[in-house]
Design brief:
3-stranded mixed beta sheet, 15% strand, 11 helices, alpha+beta, binds flavin-adenine dinucleotide, 4-stranded antiparallel beta sheet, 380 residues
């Protein structure tokens, strides 16, 4: 189906992004996968090309686009099977906290570097003892003069090794309502007491650095607090919608690309004297995948359009995240089967897509948590 979401200008931007992927990403993917992280130079090049924080206003150093430009970057990363270059995490998940909840001084200090790719960001909510139950975090930030003293451990932090700035969720109070105790602090990686732990070995997303972080009496200037003390939980609730949407966008684009590549493969690969696409089982399965892709795309583009229009879409973003990531995994699994033994070989993109897709049902709020949110929104 013809997509209605993007203007001509957006499609021109897509060409720039595709050229960037061909020139700067594809030749480096093997090295990134081996290193377990993306190099900083490519972040800077992406900044120069306008791919980092494409929505950010020029007054803060951004190119002045919108979330649709970001969506294009996410789609094109999925198109080249690049799951570890965490542009969306930085541009569309972490930087918006500084942009939305920071004061002008904080914005001036950090946003231009965030847009140029000089400053890479991360967000640290999850701890070894708690992920889904955010209000139960143990990391504390105790006020001491003009500083907070941050103590605690975080885990599974994307961009953990590369990051220069981390938005950290920490407890700053002892209110009986735990939701009122959380604050967001921007921690600079050069701060004393900020310790990067080990880089974690994962099933997929080979080029994404995911690490443990710890804060050992780490002194953070009180001027690094985002908004007012105790408002962290609300700030996260406001912005997690977009995080879920980003995951849905990546999942849908991955399903589409895997389907295109699988159809091509089944037309080339022969068995019993004919292309495997000519077996009825193959065509029926691919028809089922294509139908899921079309339905997913129709729903997702509607959600993206309404999100860009500023609507509050807690239910729809959660639905998109849960359904499209579940569906993407089914589609990629079905497609992988047609590659036979090659579908188990790491050199085949479909194999990597299969491994990469699994985590999408887990992070950004598990799909079970999505269902809890949807049920609440439905008054259940
Ligand atoms: C590759 C990767 C990257 C990540 N990046 C980041 C990052 O950058 N920053 C960050 O802060 N975190 C990050 N995470 C953490 C991720 O968001 C958490 O793993 C996720 O939220 C789940 O938390 P948990 O692992 O503690 O699981 P738990 O919360 O312990 O959940 C375990 C299981 O119990 C289920 N469950 C929990 N509560 C309920 C309930 N009420 N009802 C029904 N079922 C329930 C869950 O759905 C899940 O199946 C990342 C994780 C991974 C794997």
């Amino acid at each position: 189906m013809q997509r209605q979401l993007y203007s001509e200008e957006h499609e021109l931007f897509r060409e720039t992004v595709r050229a960037f992927m061909r020139r700067e990403v594809l030749p480096r993917q093997r090295a990134w996968n081996e290193a377990g992280m993306v190099d900083r130079e490519t972040w800077r090049q992406a900044g120069e090309a306008g791919l980092v924080c494409p929505w950010l206003e020029p007054e803060w150093g951004g190119p002045g686009g919108d979330f649709l430009h970001s969506a294009i970057v996410m789609e094109e990363l999925s198109r080249v099977y690049e799951s570890g270059f965490a542009l969306a995490l930085h541009s569309d998940i972490v930087v918006p906290y500084i942009h939305r909840f920071g004061d002008d001084q904080q914005r001036r200090r950090w946003l231009p570097g965030c847009a140029s790719g000089e400053l890479i960001t991360a967000i640290a909510m999850t701890e070894p003892g708690t992920g889904s139950d955010l209000a139960a975090i143990k990391t504390t930030a105790r006020r001491d003069g003009d500083d907070y003293v941050l103590t605690g451990a975080k885990t599974f932090i994307s961009n953990g090794m590369l990051c220069d700035l981390v938005v950290v969720a920490a407890k700053t109070g002892e209110d009986p309502d735990p939701h009122k105790n959380i604050s967001l602090l921007v921690v600079e990686a050069k701060s004393e007491g900020f310790v990067r732990g080990k880089k974690l070995e994962k099933m997929g997303m080979a080029s994404q650095d995911t690490s443990e972080l710890s804060f050992e009496d780490c002194r953070v200037p009180a001027t690094n607090l985002l908004g007012v003390e105790g408002s962290g939980f609300m700030q996260l609730m406001t912005k997690l919608q977009q995080e879920r949407l980003c995951v849905a966008i990546g999942a849908q684009a991955a399903s589409e690309q895997v389907l295109v590549d699988t159809i091509a493969y089944t037309k080339e690969r022969h068995a019993f004297g004919k292309p495997i696409s000519k077996f009825q089982n193959t065509s029926f399965k691919l028809v089922e995948c294509a139908t899921k892709v079309e339905i997913g795309r129709a729903f997702l583009d509607k959600v993206i359009a309404e999100h860009v229009a500023g609507k509050n879409l807690v239910k729809e973003c959660s639905m998109a995240k849960y359904w499209l990531t579940d569906t993407s995994q089914q589609i990629i699994d079905d497609c992988l089967q047609f590659f036979g033994g090659y579908g188990y070989m790491l050199e085949y993109p479909v194999t990597r897509a299969f491994m990469d897709s699994r985590v999408q049902r887990i992070y950004a709020g598990t799909n079970e948590i999505m269902k809890i949110i949807i049920a609440k929104q439905m008054g259940l």
